[in-house]
Amino acid sequence: MNTQVTPSAAHHASRHANQSLLQLADQCVKCGLCLPHCPTYAKTRHEADSPRGRIALTQGWLTGQLAMTPTLAAHLDGCLLCRACESACPSLVAYGRLLDGVRTKQAAEAPAWRRFWTRHWLGALSSARIMDVLGRLAVLYVRTGAARFVETARLIRFRGLAAPHRLFKTLAITARRIAPQAPEPADLDLFVGCSGASAQGGALAATRIVGEALGLSVRIASESLCCGAMQRHNGFAEDADRARAQCAQVYGDRPLVGVSSACIAELREHPELARTWEVCDYLDQRDWPDTLKIAPLARRVLVHEPCSHRRLLGGNAAVYRLLARIPGLEVAPLPDNARCCGAAGTYLLQQPTMAAALLDDKLHHIRDLKPDIIVTTNPGCALHLLAGVRESGLDIEVCHPVELIARQLPSSSI
Ligand code: SF4
Ligand code: SF4
């Protein structure tokens, strides 16, 4: 009698996924050259919090030698996915792809209740409508004194309250309504994304002002779609693929420009969106008429370079070139820009202790250099830096570089 059991399609797919992940992990020769570049390893000095250590743990888990215990999960979850290790690796280990895959497997094997919970809170954070409402609630939270009450009653001692409290206080500063426009053809479409109105309304409005000053028609689309990056980096690859495919369906045949470096990096992974522009690159490559006068600004600016912009979009040179157009502006990079600030998408909510420790290093430089303004092209980093600056009692503005340009144009309403 034939007793052979035919493996199910699901089992087959999972074995294939395991093998692909193992192949990626096995490219690591354990040389350790990535270790000095890893921010979490720099903080804990624990091999398991380094890229090499995380790869070894992954290999142990995928080959069945290690179980996914809470300790093992904590070491993997502690990764920022900043990909500093990937840039430093001589063996070209595709660390980002490996860890995204590991998180997908972790999520698939998690208890149903946890999958349900994580999927839904990620869904809420990646919904433009919900983020818009959160932005407006955040304004009320501060204006009604609720935020002050939470602070004076020392409710922020409770771990679950501290991170949302911080986020709300920061969103109260950045939230801004965006007026959608009719779908007329334009020279470029601006990608609003899920956090556009709550975190980057100023940058979107500024892009329209600068674009129009350069003779371009700019459309802020009414469809606020999410690129799917948050889902991908939290193990929900199918949801992420769906979100990105929807973006491709809407924007695939139109020139698309984004103000958030992390979203652009994610969008570009889709073949139909591979030519999505980062706004500073886009504006930098346009013709700037000699007649366009940019007013001087005697301020000192530090440029924060988000990991997504440095490592996935080819660097921040266009940001510096754009800022150099403002006469009188003193521009310098924020020291140690190669090291992640700790925001890392949802990381600042999930790993608040490490996120705060990494932010502290940035604040140390900021206190030393005392800039008037910090610019950054990623909304998560902007919120994280702004929260840190405010909590340190510093009077420093945090904004998108394009906002500075827009303000210096004649009759700017920004
Ligand atoms: S540098 Fe690359 S090969 Fe060397 S330990 Fe790090 S990930 Fe592995
Ligand atoms: S992605 Fe960043 S935090 Fe994660 S292992 Fe690599 S360097 Fe360390």
In this entry the ligands are:
iron/sulfur cluster
Instruction: Assign an overall shape.
Output: globular
Helix content: 40-55%
Q: How many structural domains? A: 4
Structural class: alpha/beta
Number of strands: 8
Mean of residue pLDDT?
Answer: 91
Residue stretches low in confidence (pLDDT < 50, at least 5 long) are: 1-5
Q: How is this structure best summarized?
A:
Its EC number is 1.1.99.14. The chain is of the alpha/beta class and 414 residues long. It contains 22 helices and 8 strands.
Structure, described:
The chain is globular and about 65 Å long. It is an alpha/beta fold. The model is unreliable at 1-5 (pLDDT under 50). Strand 3, helix 15 and strand 4 form a beta-alpha-beta unit. It has helices spanning 9-25, 39-44, 51-62, 70-77, 84-88, 95-109, 112-125, 128-143, 146-152, 159-174, 196-199, 201-213, 229-233, 237-251, 261-267, 279-284, 307-312, 317-323, 347-350, 352-369, 379-391, 401-407, and strands at residues 188-191, 218-220, 256-258, 277-278, 300-303, 330-333, 373-375, 397-399. The strands form 2 sheets. It has a 4-stranded parallel sheet. The chain has a 4-stranded parallel sheet with strand order 6-5-7-8, with helices on both faces. Helices cover 53% and strands 6% of the residues. The structure holds iron/sulfur cluster (2 copies). One iron/sulfur cluster (SF4) is lined by residues 28-34, 51-52, 55, 85, 88-89, 91, 93.
